[in-house]
Records
---
Amino acid sequence: IHLQHSVKSKPQKQVCKTVLKHFDAQYSEELGEQWRGARDVLLNPLSWQYGVLLNRFSDLTNLKQCLTELGYTNLLPQKHPESQSQDAHIPLQCFIHQDPVRIPTQSHHPGWLKQYYLLNAASLLPVLCLNVKEGENVLDLCAAPGGKSLAILQTATPGLLHCNEVDQHRHDWLLKTLESYVPPTLRDLLCVTHMDGRSIGTMRPGAYDKVLVDAPCSNDRSWLYTPDTHQGEMWLKERTQLPLLQKELLCSALAAVRPGGVVVYSTCTMSQAENQSVVEAVLASYQGVELLELEQHLIDSLSEQFCFAHFHSSVGWSLPLSGSLAQEMNYYLSEGEE
Ligand code: SAM
């Protein structure tokens, strides 16, 4: 494979002024001083942390060397194979670059596995928090297009990975992603469904060790760069509907996880209504759920690439906010005692 070092600048994205005005008002109030830094990042797409997630199931011959020659480095420290115990997770191999360098996406060829998946490196944080172990049963409640499902498979081989997506078109996209990256020998451990995630908790109570709720949200970045002011205003209205759906999805996830299991809730908006308030409301209504702190070693190993902000809410938790793009919000909840 030939990777092209394409520093060619893409056409400049236009910021939607209506949305920026809305963000300025909302986030300066909600984030205080931290909004200034987050705003700078949002307004500078060149500072977003593009990542190249390697596919451990594909032939990676020459690829790592190519990336290194282009100046890419590994996001996470890599362990020596001898130091890995049986149940230790496999380190994710995601390459990042300090300069705005992009490499081409690979196209789908039946029978051939793609070597890498391009994503925003911050979107790996929820997967790292989930910390899936070999053989665990995992539910990815809102899975399309499948970036996080793939990332999960890069960290461990679960006993079952149930990927769900409600939208028909996005469900088809999810299937295609999995087909392009996962070898046929592993497809038996995948279950892909097309359901409303809100019903899975009642259908499969306590069935999973880990559940990821990568919730539908008012994605700040897409919203800020919408080319159409009218669309921007429509989103503003739709945004108010999201917290109810998010709470219902999170409740469904908590019902689906076994006692002692872990649920990670993540969004790509900084809106309090879609983050703190959702988690707070669910915690208040759901018995036996405990909020977990992010493990310090995870924060330490990523602190060069991301800055973690801490927010203290009325229930007193600290919230990690991934930094270089200041967007991904993660909550980490555990369902009762084992
Ligand atoms: N996890 C995905 C990834 O990493 O590629 C991104 C997920 S995206 C943030 C949220 C997804 O939730 C969208 O694909 C949306 O169609 C889906 N969704 C919305 N409502 C849902 C519901 N009630 N049940 C399941 N999925 C839903």
---
Amino acid sequence: MSGPAAVLIGPPGAGKTTIAHALAERLGLAVRDTDEDIEASAGKTIADIFVEDGEPHFRELEHTAVSTALQEHEGILALGGGAVLDPRTQEELRRHTVVFLDVRITDAARRVGLNTNRPLLLGNPRAQWTIMMDHRRPIYTEIATHRVPTDGLSPEEVTEAVLKVL
Ligand code: S3P
């Protein structure tokens, strides 16, 4: 099948970027991250896009970035946590190998500190993350071809768990 060898989805703090790099190294593949693609083409950070242009505009840029990467990239692809919210993206992902890195609040908070460069988590990051995940978990679960629970695992262990399902 053409397209990425694996697409990683999951909330902020799931470890998508770290695991994407580890998988790419193990498999001798290139890694691509749609958050980075968006920042490169917009010429500014995601936080600035949210503040200056608003979330709907960010989601449009994100849809384009994901669509393009799904067509062009043959290595490991990491998506931003909210990319799966777009119904067009959901439809496109159905043709691919999609791994949901599942995580609970404790581990997510430890991994990224749920810090303030994530615009959707401003204010009360733990509460926002929990509300976000209640809404998104069913979507991540439905879209994914594989779900890998990551709680309590090191990046190496998560990488092994993903390699087993690929
Ligand atoms: C978002 C997650 C972020 C980034 C943006 C929105 C989200 O990516 O795309 O801040 O809606 O969950 P990470 O999942 O890599 O933090």
